[in-house]
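Appendix B, example 12.
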Amino acid sequence: MSGSGLLSLIGWTFLPNQIAGLLQNVYYGITIRAGEPRPMPGTLRYVTHRRRIQMLVIVLYLLFTIFEADWQLRREGDFYTTLGVLPNVDERTIQSRFRKLTLIHHPDKATTAEAQSAAESYFVALKLARDTLTDPAKRFAYDRFGPEMVEWRHCTTIQDYVFAGLKRMVPYYISVGLGMLLLGFFGYLQWGKYWRYVTFAAVCALEINLITRPALPRIITNMIDPVVNTMSGRPPYLPFQVLQLARKIALTVFIALSQLGPLLRQPSAVGQTSDGASQQRQLDRLAAAVNMAEQESSRLLQLDLTPFASDEQARQGLRNGLQEWLVQNTIRSNPTVRDAMGRALAKRREGVPAGAKGAR
């Protein structure tokens, strides 16, 4: 994995969560007045805000990663941009352009040692680009496999280059496919697993099509290239650039889906669950605890009544005393009951002379 790819994975691991927390604090600082309480972490409102902000951050970071991959391709350039020609030019145009550039940037015209060294490097790049693009087999291979095909010294025909490219492609897709299967087996990347496999198969089919066909698919030449050219002014993509972008986009989409999946569920406060089976288990445990408490209180009451077991008169007196205590402390102490009793007594005393006791 390249250094930029490793940095991208590290960024996907830490940045979305960190940026979401920072943006949430900024959001609360703007929308909540000074002195007003902020939503506490773990509350439903806090979790909802964090979920929405993190989803926005993930989508924006996904778009940034795709833009970064395209910018990296433009920064690296290709043999066509080195010569300053379009990918669809013929061999005569390439030779003419090479002669013009060598006349302008020939190392013999340099006036300093530093300028001569730069001119020599540029002349070597021009010659390599001309030699590659004027050979039909090498041009076919370069368009599909990129600059690495220059190192394939043993290849001379288009068929040789295609077989060499397939030998390098198969191990990559086998390792990625096995990695996806292992991650799924151990419980990772479960959300969107079906579409992840579909995308993986689509990228593999696209690569096979690009390296074995003489022309790009129409969806690229008729839709993607015109849109990109209109928006950024860059020349059409070469097949190997399409493959690099497709691999990078597929990888970043896989990671984005694994992070978006849990966030797309209905938010709930920390400790709150919408699982009906879990709630039923909690209710069963509560009912069992209440039943145990009731049995224990009954046992303690029977234990306290043991001294009165053989004395019926004492048991009756204790029962009457408990009833009176319940009436005095539970019923009559209730403000609503006292108010009702007061109104009833006042009604019965209507028309009774002052100082009279009772009311008939």
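Residues 44-76 form the longest helix (33 residues). The chain has a mean pLDDT of 80.
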